[in-house]
Amino acid sequence: MTKRFISTLILWAITVVCFFVIGPDAAVWFLAVLSLASQYEFYELLEKMGRRPFKKFGVFLGTIMVLAPYYANKMADDQAYRTQSAIIAVTIVACCLRILREREVDERIESLGSTLLGLIYVPFMLTFLVRMIELPEIPEQGLMLVVWLVVTAKFTDVGALLVGKAFGKHPMSPVTSPKKTWEGAIGGCLVSVGLGFALTYFARDYFPDFLTPFWGMVLALPIAIISIISDLVESMLKRMADQKDSGSFIPGIGGAFDLTDSLILAAPTGYLLFGIII
Hints:
By secondary structure, this protein is mainly α. It contains nine helices and two strands, in the order ααααααββααα. Helix content is 77%, strand content 3%. The chain has a two-stranded antiparallel sheet with strand order 1-2.
């Protein structure tokens, strides 16, 4: 628990420096690094299941998928969506070309599918965090949207852990993740709702006008629910790969994928919800 606490403090310190001291470019690169490491660990889990994705090639394309739309939009307004669509198309073509000269014939479609799965499930989904930065006219307000989403998603897990240890009796998913309970999930959602309100209330001058304390509270609930589901998906993958953690380079937490797991489904959900209330 001590290692987890120290690692969490360090990660939040890096986040604060990148987001609020250096600025949007540093924040995007920080997200790109997390995406790269998470995608690499995702491919390693697939390899332990007997799959053979193009690991380095896929991670290279995934990093471009995160960075290119942001810089394309900076150079020419409204180019992000076109660039991202083009990157996805080019990525599929590149992977198809790659399998023609590598892998045994009976492994080619499996390699193509596992490589594309890693690209869509990790970097594509996390690009919605980058898109959030560009939702308001002021990028600094967009950074606050990302911080709000990260807080409401990640502290759902913290709340669920603490409440589950204290009051948990009914397992939510006994086979996939035996330690997660319904009591913990409810507690995590309540913590998320409380923080979603508190953050937008006490720092309301730094958020775009559309994210009022009321909406900060209301939208936190679906984000919390989706983050729990997202975390369960990673638990399924780790169980299938017979792994406790996706990696080991973050003491007390595990790997990068263990860090971003709840954000992968929460990021596009948050972006969609913000788009509805703008």
